[in-house]
């Protein structure tokens, strides 16, 4: 197995003791888009094309998992996210968010299944975004469990249906909240259906690709702007986040989508990026291996080919660092391991799983230059 250990001295943007080593755990995956640990040694990886794999983290050996639901693999469609049930060790249950066809009437869907003997069993669709669309773009498809055990799903605007994001009765361009069986959460903002769809938790989103719940129970998400204006948002129930009424980006043609970057009744982003970084995944670090990174938000990117580490204080970004640019790869996701390790998923036909751990340095070693050992 290809194994490379690299130590990077990041004194220019991190404390001197925040050094790390990297190792390619496994490679050759066709666009690995999500990853979840079933125990300290074993992870599941889902790829865009609808395949699932079990990986031994130490050896890198990976085996296919059969029985996964069929997905619509076109443009931005495929398997989006893999999430283990909070009681996975007892019930072996997991959730998959994916694009579901046919092309002329496709949508983001959630399937629930039981993992048994290397296969998914009792595979059941519990939710499908309505209305369906005929575009293979802006699906959303990120999953997270809220503090009360309800399930959160991001839904994109379908690219050509941007006005639906401002329609609270449409499930496009939203964060949706439901029970683990797919029924709407009882205290959702529009649960009675009189002012909006019962599943809608927040609205005015474009292409939400990141979703995470912090230790205080706050929901964070990031979304792609059009050309610039990628946003990080702190999500409140029933709140409107503006798209397409407000935006910090412009149309791909160069024309303005809206003259407004703010408006009454619109929740502003915590921060935004122009030009676009193409944020692909959001993780809040809770481990102790890198104590200086605890509670930081990590945003992987597809355009900048790096990871942004954001330090938050009182809902305000106080610093932003750039990490892992040395891999020169589109990073689809960053995942925390059971012991606090970090794992990068690179977005390519020969995608890699890269492990990041603290380096062990000899005090007498040279500190001015990176050290590479093979």
Largest sheet: 6 strands, antiparallel
Assembly type of the chains comes to single chain
Distance between the termini: 12 Å
Q: Which regions have little confidence, pLDDT < 50, spanning 5+ residues?
A: 1-17, 362-374
Q: How many extended strands?
A: 26
Helix content: under 10%
Radius of gyration: 20 Å
Strand order of the largest sheet: 23-24-25-2-1-26
Strand share of the residues?
Answer: 35-45%
Helix/strand class: mainly beta
How many DSSP helices?
Answer: 1
Overall morphology: globular
Topology as H/E string?
A: EEEEEEEHEEEEEEEEEEEEEEEEEEE
Mean pLDDT: 92
Description:
- With 374 residues, the protein is mainly β.
- Helices cover 1% and strands 43% of the residues.
- It has one helix and 26 strands.
- It has one helix spanning 88-91, and strands at 5-8, 20-29, 32-37, 42-47, 52-56, 62-65, 79-84, 93-100, 107-116, 119-128, 140-145, 151-155, 174-178, 200-203, 207-213, 219-224, 230-235, 271-273, 279-284, 297-301, 307-313, 316-323, 331-336, 342-346, 351-358, 371-373.
- The strands form six sheets. The protein has a six-stranded antiparallel β-sheet, with no helix packed on it. Strands 3-4-5-6 form a four-stranded antiparallel β-sheet, with no helix packed on it.
- A hairpin with a 5-residue loop joins strand 5 and strand 6.
- The model is unreliable at 1-17 and 362-374 (pLDDT under 50).
Write the layout of secondary structure elements.
Blueprint: E1 5-8, E2 20-29, E3 32-37, E4 42-47, E5 52-56, E6 62-65, E7 79-84, H1 88-91, E8 93-100, E9 107-116, E10 119-128, E11 140-145, E12 151-155, E13 174-178, E14 200-203, E15 207-213, E16 219-224, E17 230-235, E18 271-273, E19 279-284, E20 297-301, E21 307-313, E22 316-323, E23 331-336, E24 342-346, E25 351-358, E26 371-373
Antiparallel strand pairs: 1-2, 1-26, 2-25, 3-4, 4-5, 5-6, 7-8, 8-9, 9-10, 11-12, 12-13, 13-14, 15-16, 16-17, 17-18, 19-20, 20-21, 21-22, 23-24, 24-25
């Amino acid at each position: 197995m290809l194994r490379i250990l690299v130590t990077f001295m990041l004194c220019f943007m991190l404390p001197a003791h925040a050094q790390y080593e990297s190792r390619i755990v496994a490679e050759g995956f066709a666009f690995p888009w999500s990853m979840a640990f079933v125990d300290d040694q074993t992870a599941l990886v889902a790829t865009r094309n609808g395949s699932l794999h079990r990986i031994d983290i130490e050896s890198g050996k990976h085996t296919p998992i059969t029985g996964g639901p069929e997905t619509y693999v076109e443009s931005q469609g495929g398997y989006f996210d893999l999430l283990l049930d909070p009681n996975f060790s007892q019930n072996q249950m997991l959730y998959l968010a994916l694009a579901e066809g046919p092309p002329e009437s496709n949508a983001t869907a959630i399937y629930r299944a039981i993992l048994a003997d290397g296969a998914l069993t009792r595979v059941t669709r519990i939710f499908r975004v309505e209305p369906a669309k005929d575009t293979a773009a802006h699906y959303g498809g990120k999953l997270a469990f809220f503090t009360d055990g309800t399930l959160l799903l991001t839904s994109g605007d379908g690219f050509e249906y941007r006005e639906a994001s401002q329609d609270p009765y449409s499930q496009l361009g939203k964060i949706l909240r439901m029970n683990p069986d797919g029924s709407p959460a009882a205290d959702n903002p529009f649960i009675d259906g009189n002012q909006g769809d019962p599943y809608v938790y927040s609205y005015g989103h474009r292409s939400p690709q990141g979703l995470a719940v912090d230790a205080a129970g706050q929901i964070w998400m990031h979304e792609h702007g059009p050309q610039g204006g990628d946003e990080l948002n702190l999500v409140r129930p029933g709140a409107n986040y503006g798209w397409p009424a407000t935006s910090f980006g412009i149309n791909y043609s160069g024309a303005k989508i809206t003259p407004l970057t703010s408006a009454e009744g619109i929740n502003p982003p915590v921060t935004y990026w122009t030009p676009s970084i193409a944020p692909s995944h959001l993780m809040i670090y809770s481990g102790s291996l890198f104590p200086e990174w605890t509670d930081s938000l990590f945003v992987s990117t597809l355009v900048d080919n790096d990871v942004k580490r954001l330090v938050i204080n009182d809902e305000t970004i106080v610093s932003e660092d750039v990490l892992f640019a040395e891999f020169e790869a589109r990073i689809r996701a960053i995942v925390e391991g059971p012991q606090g390790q970090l794992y990068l998923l690179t977005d390519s036909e020969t995608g890699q799983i890269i492990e990041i751990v603290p380096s062990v340095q000899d005090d007498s070693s040279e500190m001015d230059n990176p050290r590479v050992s093979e």
